[in-house]
Write a structure and sequence with these properties.
The protein is mainly beta. It has a single domain, classed as YVTN repeat-like/Quinoprotein amine dehydrogenase (Methylamine Dehydrogenase, Chain H), CATH 2.130.10. It is 0% helix and 34% strand. The strands form three sheets. Strands 1-2-3-4 form a four-stranded antiparallel sheet, with no helix packed on it. A four-stranded antiparallel sheet has the order 5-6-7-8, with no helix packed on it. The radius of gyration is 19 Å and the shape is globular. The chain starts with 42 loop residues before the first strand and ends in a 12-residue tail after the last strand.
Length: 182
């Protein structure tokens, strides 16, 4: 008799070899990033449709809507803030045109921001995981980092918590050098 869940459906388990190799976790037992409990999380960012998610820990992890790891980028120690472009509506699985407003399909909207301890803010492409550029601020961001826009969606601002208070930066138009949707 096979095992069933509470609704009487058969439980499907993983199949394959469960080999052990010098203490390395067998591939069949590694399910996802969310099962790694040894990493301290510092910041989480998600776009409004939930199709791209970022987790800042020992690195910046780029995840899709199912929390499947898609890529990583370095995250300097000593800074924690991170957020995405307000108009980011892309899927971590596809660099193409978003399926949910307010995204425009413009790769210049497919970006995220992360604070550095040296007073800079890195700008990242969220599909190719590459650094695009940076923004210099006077005081290092030591707390949350958030992006907001005006009602007409013509300007975006980045707000960050520093040791001296809150900093507000009007975001310039960022040109993403990574490929546009096809």
């Amino acid at each position: 008799m096979s095992a069933v869940d509470l609704f009487g459906r058969p439980i499907v388990s993983d199949t394959g070899d469960n080999d052990r190799d010098l203490g390395v976790t067998p591939y069949i037992d590694v399910s996802d990033f969310i099962s790694n409990t040894g990493v301290n999380l510092h910041s989480v960012a998600t776009n409004f449709n939930g199709l791209t998610n970022l987790v800042r820990a020992d690195s910046i992890y780029f995840l899709d809507e199912g929390m499947k790891l898609k890529g990583t980028a370095p995250a300097p120690i000593g800074a924690f803030g991170m957020d995405m472009n307000y108009n980011h509506a892309f899927s971590a699985n596809d660099p193409g045109t978003p399926t949910f407003p307010p995204g425009t399909g413009n790769p210049n909207d497919r970006i995220a921001f992360s604070a550095r301890p040296d007073g800079n803010i890195d700008i990242w492409d969220t599909f190719f995981y590459g650094r695009i550029g940076g923004i210099v601020v006077r005081d290092p961001i030591t707390g949350p980092l958030r992006v907001a826009r005006n009602a007409a969606n013509t300007r975006q601002w980045l707000f960050g918590v520093t040791a001296a208070g809150v900093v507000m930066v009007e975001l310039p138009v960022v040109t993403n050098p990574f490929p546009a949707p096809h």
